[in-house]
């Protein structure tokens, strides 16, 4: 993947995360406490994993020894941490040369197993990991009254580049 593609994916992740946070904020906590708890737990896991991988990318000590916690922070704190992580990831990816993007990092997963990934693979993992957990949050949003936002990559592309909607099939393909 060229660096421009991973940057685009990170912009997508930030956009989708913001839509998800806004939807979670609409959950009626009195009527749907279990659904809100599931959404917060999923966000907590998502944020902690991103913070661990950020430390790995920076070759610093990891801030967490597990991917979740007994005490789940409030939604406001989780949203702030997720936004901070997204801002950092985008700036970090923009700063990498192609050689640095392909550089392998060796680490121990939180379960103690050893692993290695390139910086680009880690960035892609975080995009993909976010998609997986937004899906779980989406189920909680459905159960809390159908608040799930459309957050697919195709929706992102056409929301951020509306000019893509104006073409007919086959147009511009030399046909």
TrEMBL record:
SUPFAM superfamilies: DinB/YfiT-like putative metalloenzymes (SSF109854). It comes from the Bacteria. Pfam families: DinB. One of its GO terms (molecular function) is metal ion binding. Signal peptide: none annotated. Gene3D superfamilies: dinb family like domain (1.20.120.450). A divalent metal cation binds at residues 45, 129, 133. The keyword Metal-binding applies. InterPro entries: DinB, DinB/YfiT-like. Keywords: Metal-binding. The keyword DNA damage does not apply. Belongs to the DinB family. This is DinB family protein. It comes from Aquitalea aquatica.
């Amino acid at each position: 993947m060229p660096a421009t593609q991973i940057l685009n994916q990170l912009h997508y992740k930030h956009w989708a995360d913001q839509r998800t946070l806004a939807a979670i904020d609409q959950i009626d906590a009195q009527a749907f406490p279990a659904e809100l708890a599931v959404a917060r737990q999923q966000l907590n896991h998502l944020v902690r994993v991103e913070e661990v991988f950020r430390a790995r990318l920076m070759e610093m000590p990891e801030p967490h020894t597990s991917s979740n916690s007994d005490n789940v922070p409030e939604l406001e704190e989780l949203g702030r941490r997720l936004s901070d992580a997204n801002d950092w990831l985008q700036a970090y990816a923009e700063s990498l040369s192609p050689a640095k993007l392909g550089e392998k990092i060796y680490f121990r997963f939180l379960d103690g197993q050893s692993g290695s990934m390139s910086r680009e693979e880690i960035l892609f993992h975080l995009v993909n990991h976010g998609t997986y957990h937004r899906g779980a949050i989406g189920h909680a949003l459905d159960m809390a009254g159908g608040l799930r936002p459309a957050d697919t990559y195709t929706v992102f592309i056409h929301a951020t580049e509306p000019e893509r909607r104006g073409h007919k099939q086959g147009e511009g393909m030399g046909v």
